[in-house]
Automatic annotation (TrEMBL):
One of its GO terms (cellular component) is membrane. Residues 486-611 form the Prokaryotic cation-chloride cotransporter first C-terminal subdomain domain. It is found in: Membrane. This is Amino acid transporter. InterPro entries: AA-permease/SLC12A_dom, CCC_C_1st_subdom, CCC_C_2nd_subdom, SLC12A_fam. Residues 614-746 form the Prokaryotic cation-chloride cotransporter second C-terminal subdomain domain. It is a multi-pass membrane protein. Pfam families: AA_permease, CCC_C_1st_pro, CCC_C_2nd_pro. It comes from Methanolobus vulcani. It comes from the Archaea. Belongs to the SLC12A transporter family. The chain crosses the membrane at residues 30-52, 64-85, 106-131, 151-169, 174-193, 213-236, 248-272, 292-316, 345-361, 367-388, 400-420, 426-442. The keyword Membrane applies. Its main location: membrane.
Amino acid sequence: MDSENNEERQKANLQERVEEQKGIVPGKKLFGTVEGVFIPTLLTILGVIMYLREGWVVGNAGLLGAWVIILIAFGITLSTALSLSSVTTNIRIGAGGAFSIISQSLGLEVGGSIGIPLYISQSLAVAMYIFGFRAGWLWMFPNHSPIVVDLAAFAILFIVAYISASLAFRIQYVILAIIIASFASIIWAAYSGSMQESITWWGSFSGSPENGFTGIGFWGVFAVFFPAATGIMAGANMSGELKDPRKSIPLGTLAAIVLSLVVYLLLAYWLASSASTDELLNNYTIMAEKAVWGQLIVAGLLGATFSSALSSIVGAPRILQALANHQILPASDWFAKRSGSGEPRNAMIFTGALVFLALLLRDLNAIAPLITMFFLITYAMINIVVLIEQNLKLISFRPLFKIPMIISIIGAIGCVFVMVIVNPTFTVIAFIVVLLIHAYLLKKHLKAPFGDVRSGLFVAVAEWAAKQSNRIAPSNERTWKANLLIPVRNPNILTGAFNLIKDITYPKGSVKILGLSGEVEESKFTSRLVDLTNSFRNRGVFSSWTLIDTKEFDKSLIAGMEALTGSFFRPRVLFIHMSSFEGRETKLREIIQKSSKRNIGVLLLAIHPETVYGRENSVNLWINDRSPDWDISMDLGNQDLAILIAYKLKKNWKASLKMISCVKEQYNNYKAEQYLENLSELARIPNVHTKILLGDIESSTVNAPRASINVFSMEPDIDFDFVRKAVENTGSSCLFALDSGEENALA
């Protein structure tokens, strides 16, 4: 008996895990394809424009022109629906519909920047549908108070949605029956002989009564009609409450769009052959007058607007809750809270308050285009997500429903095109709003429980750039950056040089930390390397790390350098902290020589134990004696790296820079002075002071001006005695640079 119970529990747990992977909310009534996707999407598309504006479209454009407009509009939304279907069959879509899809591909920041405007638009659309409902109601009952009609409709909508989505979907069956009855009235009229008018195949685009029939272009009529083809996300918004969203969203959405397209095309034919052009242009209720039972057309209009409002008021809180689940919103925990039955009650209350305030405005015409823009941006992003995934050719993108790339391209371009022709000003405003939200979300450092393809996108771009770069003759002089390879045996020593390394590499350089373990416990060593890497990244310097477990650091370091020389984004400079290799000078000299042979530059840091970097306000740059030839040329003789590093420190420290050179003969003073001035000018380093010292460089360090750091050039066969004397004589930390041959301070 116990074994049977255990088996049942295991099956239940397995089922729960399967449902969780499908994005299903545990313990909640789940919906199938018909009631969860097909009917809400169909009723949203068969809306107020069909009843009140399709006749006007046919009157302006003629039957052929109207068909072209309908086909273009549905072509754009069908392309988007196909993209939606493709990506839905590739992921375990969570709650929030489009927000979930975009977030799982391009990250929470992009998903949130689209999801927040989408939620607001979905909520404000409820108010607009209520206004449409009111217009139909007042057509039947002109003496009723408009505000009372609005508030009554809102109260019914809110109560139904607040109780449960299940009740809302049951009501939609009734509305669907009313709309079908209105179609029956039209079919009966056609059967009874209403189609007696001669068809105008291409209209004159006369305009509307509101503009005195002063004319309107093809795209103007298209802009009026296009919202009729939207509403395709009504089912996708319920993604968290579908039994099988991967199956239901594609099947239900595509079926609703295809059926709606057929309805719109047939209605256009019936209108064109049942009413004259003047009737179609002047009478927005021509459909009701030509049908057998006009009251059923009005009932269908009321049902269509009510169902559209119901779909929006059910879907919007679920988008809000999905945003809150990922901590995108302020007070996210409150918005994310569910009732015992799984309904997003708190999100519903907030959405209801937003709709109520919108109703008090009495007219949303001023911002109606902005609402349309946010819907279109969402559609465009769905297409772009699929386009990106297709182009990356990642193995993770293997949708069960595959589409040609051209479909996503048509959908994306079509959405942007419609945005521009509907209202260019609001198009710009919509994009600005999305970008501002994205910038805000970037600062929140959101953590997603799922991966996305952003890293793959950047890698693909980098790979493309690398291929293009390899086709060009190599020349790194103009593109040189301080990309450092830093061997580390003791993380504490590197921590002490953290700020100096950051100032050498910021903003475009990078740090590759090569951990040489064997003396420090590996777990602690790894933890410190991760912490250092994150610290560099937080300060704006790209950083990565790797670990080599060995006690023979010199051989491992040389092997690491040899391996990295074959990579495209290879470190260009080996940064050595002398304190890390105390007592290993022979091996260190060998490493420096090997680096020079492999065209890797070297920076050797020798820290003064007391002054360290002083006030970080002054830099001494030592220029080698050029006697007897002080003529400047592009070959600076192993001085380029030292000059570039000194300039970086001057800039990032906002420090003064003094160029110092030593001459053995007094008569070379003037030549050396001119050389330093010319060098600073050609190297484009402003505000440089110069100083000439008599004697060799070793003896002159005693007389050097005080500075936070002294920068010298060095040879592969470095003299470590000179390094120690330089630190002692200058009373400061010293940095010794060996060119790789790829630097050019004059480039």
